[in-house]
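Input record (Table S2, row 293):
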Amino acid sequence: MTALFSKFRSIIRENISLSSYSTMKVGGPASFAAFPKDGNTLSALIAEARENKIRYIIVGNASNILFSDRGFDGLVIFTTAMREVHWDGISVTAGCGASLTGLSATATKKGLSGLEFAFGIPGTVGGAVYMNAGAYGSQVSAVLTESTYLRGTEILSRKAEDHEFGYRTSVYRSTDDIILSATFTLTPKSPDEIALLAEKNMASRKAKQPLEYPNAGSVFKRPEGAFPGALIEQAGLKGLRVGGAEISEKHANFIVNRGNATADDILRLTETAQKEVYRRFGILLETEIIYIS
Ligand SMILES: Cc1cc2nc3c(=O)[nH]c(=O)nc-3n(C[C@H](O)[C@H](O)[C@H](O)COP(=O)(O)OP(=O)(O)OC[C@H]3O[C@@H](n4cnc5c(N)ncnc54)[C@H](O)[C@@H]3O)c2cc1C
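Output record (flavin-adenine dinucleotide complex):
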């Protein structure tokens, strides 16, 4: 290992393949990847990266990210080891790297309602707050009461009303702040009733989404009054393939990796869908998946 980041030896790796760390199973090498377990280590890592003019990015479970085939020339900080969870009555505070689906499953067992929508979303708590993840009529903003975040070397907190939540967005999308934890306040309900709803949501996911192939969730955000999947299907693009990537036969707002897809294959399909939907319907689809290059 180079002298760079040498004091983080136990949590840092050099030259890793990003494809193994993304749900799309696509992406070239990253010069460095780090897996800090707490906010102080995260802050120290960033300080060293800045001092040495190394680019860095924060990544949760990379379930909403497409990594470039050329990889990332810099430091990729994965939050997945920052996953402590503390339950306190009807509230729960979870580290940014905790699994959203795991949290939803525990809430169900405890008879606490509010996170049923999250069961099956394969991201972390931090990624979910950043994106205001949602499904089946609910979203993070409906249950989040507070988050803590790192700004420079300071740890600060933010109340629910200061998150500027919108459709798949929060205040974090327009800052360099790093979410460290989130507190959700839930509502007591019968565990059977909660489990029934979570299972119903999961069954609907399995029926409609191409979970049998690597993917990164919905490719496009929902435009006002329309569904991207229906528009792409009406444009005749369902099943279209470029290299190893396919506009899913099962749901046209998903691009799946049928084996050895590259990020460039996926970008070409994304652009084709955007152009064709615009040409036919005059609707400009905006991507939900974040491209990192
Ligand atoms: C099969 C499948 C189904 C999905 N279903 C849904 C769904 O129903 N609803 C939905 O909303 N999404 C869905 N998604 C998309 C994705 O799972 C969510 O957006 C999820 O919240 C992303 O979390 P993540 O940890 O993977 O974030 P990542 O993909 O790792 O990151 C997403 C963005 O968040 C930023 N980020 C992550 N952690 C932090 C942090 N701690 N601080 C600051 N910024 C951070 C990253 O820099 C990046 O810009 C689905 C994805 C898949 C693969």
